[in-house]
Amino acid sequence: MAAVRAAERSRRDTLALRRQRIGSSCKLFFSHDPVKIVKAKGQYMYDEEGRQYLDCINNVAHVGHCHPDIVKAAHEQNQLLNTNSRYLHDNLVDYAGRLSKTLPEKLCIFYFLNSGSEANDLALRLARQYTKHEDVIVLDHSANCFLSAYHGHLTSLIDISPYKFRNLEGQKEWVHVAPVPDTYRGLYREDHEDSVTAYANEVKNIIEQAHTRGRKIAAFFAESLPSVGGQIIPPAGYFQKVAEHVHKAGGIFIADEIQVGFGRVGKHFWAFQLQGEDFIPDIVTMGKPIGNGHPLACVATTKEIAEAFAATGVEYFNTFGGNPVSCAIGLAVLDVIEKEHLQAHATEVGNFLMKLLKEQKIKHPIIGDVRGSGLFIGVDLIKDQAERTPATAEAEYLITRLKEEYILLSTDGPGRNVLKFKPPMCFNKDDAKFVVDTIDKLLTDMEKQCLNQEKTSTCST
Fold first, then answer.
1. How far is residue 305's CA from residue 311's CA, in Å, rounded to a whole number?
2. Distant-in-sequence, close-in-space partners of 8: CB < 8 Å, separation ≥ 6
3. Weakest mean pLDDT among 6-10, 19-23, 75-79, 309-313
4. How much is the average pLDDT of 271-293?
5. What is the 3-state secondary structure (H, E, C) of the chain?
């Protein structure tokens, strides 16, 4: 009966109950007119009226919402056993073995957890125990930006997430902020003679300044492709140079793959591999897509770092991390990626989507930049070509109008002006064309409205 009553509840009633029972800091998409989603399949979501929405942003449902193979794996293992990892179970070691085949050889020790935040928190602990240092270097746009580096919601991670700490207690003395290697609107842009070295030298300078104050670097902590910062693609070679400076200072390199791993970038299974074969991080963290919506996360590291962590004599135990059901789901996700060739699909569809979007860039001056790899793409909306001022209001208007056309898209970036594409990996060329055609139509309408307003203003004066 409870399920029936919930199914019959109106969107307005559900919204009222949410406001009554759920913390107001837990925000909704499209808060002025939220969507009530009752089911989903593949790259589509459905509201209580049965209307279909194209999901362009849900990178958690990596291989598609409610994929039957994932549902089956969870159901079958749930019927047999679900317990903690203190008992021997094949799923745990099999899953670690499968993950190890996707990573560089030295990243061969795994810890399983329930969320990306837990994974990043453990990575921080590993780094500090191994190096015996405390300080962390993270990336950011500027002190004035709305959105920047974000690594999770735990206290330890809020402290290293400018996106959060700028609005709370501020920057801790052990946190150091380097400029994000954004060659479109960052400190060193596409016309710089050597943006890779220039951005890496910013990290080197931070390390040197920290040393003059008696501080020691434990880790450089970065998303392989900064997502909240605006779908940034760091120039190839940047991570290598940064790692060189960090290692020389006795620190390690942590690659946060929570948003972008598992074949999303198309060319490679992991986004850090876009930097080149000669770059290998010391720790890789995984979450979100790893379980296709099931709470699962992982930390991969080296034997040396893991042994230093174990040397404390303090056991690391996570009640639900690595349980048989979670590992069965993780294995099923890897199976689907292979069976459906989703990594190659991300390359093919991503290239097609990028081509269509770049055609729109020529047509619509509001589109300042189109960047990405595979099915991780950002469209940077600007007010003017010279200053590249973020078109924040226009971006918000556009995603609202897209929602009215049954397309779910959202924004990120320093001015909340970057349209972010991170759809389920089954997103196809027809979906891409539908989205871009709709964006073209809406931008054309916006330009006509603007022109009419200018004519009205001129006539009135």
1. 10
2. none
3. 6-10
4. 97
5. CHHHHHHHCCHHHHHHHHHHHCCCCCCCCCCCCCCCEEEEEECEEEECCCCEEEECCCCCCCCCECCHHHHHHHHHHHHHCCCCCCCCCHHHHHHHHHHHCCCCCCCCEEEEECCHHHHHHHHHHHHHHHHCCCEEEEEECCCCCCCCCCCCCCHHHHCCCHHHHCCCCCCCCCEEEEECCCCCCCCCCCCCCCHHHHHHHHHHHHHHHHHHCCCCEEEEEEECCCCCCCCCCCCCCHHHHHHHHHHHCCCEEEEECCCCCCCCCCCCCCHHHHHCCCCCCCEEEECHHHHCCCCCEEEEECHHHHHHHHCCCCCCCCCCCCCHHHHHHHHHHHHHHHHCCHHHHHHHHHHHHHHHHHHHHHHCCCEEEEEEECCEEEEEEECCCCCCCECHHHHHHHHHHHHHCCEECEEECCCCCEEEECCCCCCCHHHHHHHHHHHHHHHHHHHHHHHHHHHHHHHHC
The single-letter DSSP state of residue 139 is E
Task: Examine the pLDDT at 143 and tell me if it is beyond 60.
Answer: no
- Reported residue count of the chain is 461
The span from the CA of 432 to the CA of 413, in Å, is: 22
Which tokens belong to 324?
Answer: 């048989």
Place of tokens 């059901």: 325
Q: Which among 268, 274, 184, 300 has a CA at the least distance from the CA of 231?
A: 184
CA atoms within 13 A on the CB side of 70: 22
Residue 355: C-alpha distances to residues 69, 173, 316, 372 (Å): 32, 45, 47, 11
Minimal CA–CA distance to 7: which of 27, 44, 35, 37? 37
Identify the pLDDT of residue 178.
95
**Rounded Cα–Cα distance for residues 263 and 177 (Å):** 29
422 and 227 Cβ atoms separated by less than 8 Å: yes
DSSP 204: H
Rounded mean pLDDT, 176-205: 96
Which of 20, 44, 48, 23 lies closest to 34, judged by CA? 48
